[in-house]
Amino acid sequence: MDPFFVEPIARGGKYRLLEQSELPTPDPDLQFKIVIVGDSGCGKTSLLSSYIRGSFPSEYEPTIFENHRAFLQDSSQQHILTVDLWDTAGQEDYERLRRLSYQDSNLIILAYSLAAKDSLLNIPEVWAPEILGFCDKTPIVLVGLKADVSKKEVHPEQAHNVAKSIGAVAHIECSAKQMYNVDQLFNACVNVVYNQHQAAAREAARDSKRFSKGHFRIASNSNNLAAVGSEISKESRSDSCCTIM
Ligand SMILES: Nc1nc2c(ncn2[C@@H]2O[C@H](COP(=O)(O)OP(=O)(O)OP(=O)(O)O)[C@@H](O)[C@H]2O)c(=O)[nH]1
Ligand SMILES: [Mg+2]
């Protein structure tokens, strides 16, 4: 089975991680928050380090909490996205702190290790319920880490089934150690959040049109005018509605 499985929602453009020295001017409305969670020791911090710094940490240091800001440019060079990557603690001792990370997240990277079967079993047992409890509408990308290990404890089909059962939008295998699929993973994640942002913007534009059209139709009935106007101003954030009033 193809170890790299991505639903259409994760497809789209390509994004280049910018160096800090490039001093980007990011688009203010293109700011996203991605949180990575999963069992302790499954490889979350190493994955982020490989992606952001291009280096694989030589020693294991349990994370308490860490936050990285990345700037990404799309291939058409029209947009610069700001992506905050929140690394969390897999250890139970820091559970309360981790739970504070979910708020306002645009995407969750849910990680397991291909070298530890329990870490996959914990996805539906522990992690999916925790995520659903804090952000039930946030898309999840399931990631199998340590794809380089020779003795794998997880079969790709098992993991695919888990991905489907929790409603993940994509499932990808990576190796932080060998930089395998790391850029592809983050590219897919950024496409998910960007596509979602664009869909929300289109929906908002449609709503605004609907409200302004509806107002013109009802406006001929002068008895309803005040009530309709007040409803529109309550529900719509669009300037076009306000000007009609
Ligand atoms: N072979 C292999 N080992 C890895 C890989 N990624 C991480 N490791 C090792 O797995 C161990 C744990 O890695 P971390 O990235 O610190 O794990 P974590 O998920 O951040 O753990 P917590 O911070 O405790 O939640 C370390 O000894 C890493 O060297 C990988 O891609 N391949
Ligand atoms: Mg860590």
Automatic annotation (TrEMBL):
Subcellular location: Cell membrane
Keywords: Cell membrane, GTP-binding, Lipoprotein, Membrane, Methylation, Nucleotide-binding, Prenylation
GO molecular function: GTP binding; GTPase activity
The keyword Nucleotide-binding is assigned to this record: yes
Membrane topology, from the record: Lipid-anchor
A matching Pfam family: Ras
InterPro entries noted in UniProt: P-loop_NTPase, Small_GTP-bd, Small_GTPase, Small_GTPase_Rho
Main location: membrane
An annotated GO cellular component: plasma membrane
Swiss-Prot/TrEMBL GO biological process terms: maintenance of cell polarity; positive regulation of formin-nucleated actin cable assembly; small GTPase-mediated signal transduction
PROSITE patterns with a match to the protein in the record: RAB, RAS, RHO
SUPFAM superfamilies linked: P-loop containing nucleoside triphosphate hydrolases
SMART domains per record: RAB, RAN, RAS, RHO
Family to which this protein belongs: Belongs to the small GTPase superfamily. Rho family.
Classification via NCBIfam families: small_GTP
Entry protein name: GTP-binding protein RHO4
Organism of this sequence: Ogataea parapolymorpha (strain ATCC 26012 / BCRC 20466 / JCM 22074 / NRRL Y-7560 / DL-1) (Yeast)
